[in-house]
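Notes for week 9. Today we move from apo structures to complexes. The key idea is that a small molecule is not decoration. When we ask for a structure prediction with magnesium ion present, the ligand SMILES becomes part of the input, just like the chain. The input block below holds both the sequence and the ligand string. Read it once before you look at the output, and try to guess where the molecule might sit.
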Amino acid sequence: MTTTTTTGTPQAQPAGRTDVLRASGVTMRFGGLTAVRNVDLDVDSGEIVGLIGPNGAGKTTFFNCLTGLYIPTEGQVAYKGKVLPHRSHLVTKAGIARTFQNIRLFANMTVLENVLVGRHTRTKEGLLSALLRGPGFRKAERGSEERAMELLEFTGLAGKREHLARNLPYGEQRKLEIARALASEPGLLLLDEPTAGMTAGETSATRDLVLAVREQGTAVLVIEHDMRFIFNLCDRVAVLVQGEKLVEGSPEAVQADERVVAAYLGTPFEGEPGEAEAAEVREAETREAAAHDGGQTGTGENPKGEQH
Ligand SMILES: Nc1ncnc2c1ncn2[C@@H]1O[C@H](COP(=O)(O)OP(=O)(O)OP(=O)(O)O)[C@@H](O)[C@H]1O
Ligand SMILES: [Mg+2]
């Protein structure tokens, strides 16, 4: 089944690329609030697509619509040509995995167990069996353990396989979420702020990890506030503002787009932040100094006792 998009980049799909995600006309209303309005977004195989926008723009809500957590008020989401059901476990089973803005791990399970639980959609054993660690789960576990260890190697967590998830530093918890998401062998990985709270080194390692995920054949849609991360990583970037897709295009085109600069970026890469405010203060000081010189009453104090 095909859907059409009315906005975005009408460029032809490069040879060999296929549709992974097609979201069309997705709208999500909460009572009187329209958090997402008529958003179209496609992701092709082999792509890393960024989704950016100010706080409250509707990015996470859009992810929740894609993954069956919310039933969109309007619109539909198709994965590899099939419209997805509004049930999150069926969406995972179909091939879309995600991480969460607020980390969701089984805190009292080990690193390895968390990844094994992530594999339950690819084994006959259900989540309950995985959590209860029944005989069926243990059998499936043996079969899955090798793949889980591969994923821990891949994410750099193999040495911590027996650590409890809650004892991992924050950056490693985010990595573990990615490993767990990959355990369901997704064709599309959705990352909601994967580098939030990370050091520069961890962010750079996460970039390498996302590139490696793509190399292994999984397309990626990533929400981030770290513009450097997004513009260095993504093939294409879409900008949500107040629930609507404002712009979509290459990182270069999006960075240069005046609407994006005005709505979101401000003047991040050049110019002096706060220059307008500084000019106002200078002007006020000049006025005050002039008034003081003219014998009028002014504060005229120098609370820090600084020498002029
Ligand atoms: N379950 C809900 N019920 C009511 N309103 C909601 C719900 N979820 C989100 N919203 C509202 O929808 C809007 C979009 O929120 P959302 O969390 O999607 O933004 P976001 O772009 O992910 O922001 P951030 O960058 O801060 O994570 C906000 O106004 C939020 O308060
Ligand atoms: Mg969010």
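Residues 49 and 221 are 5 Å apart (CA to CA).
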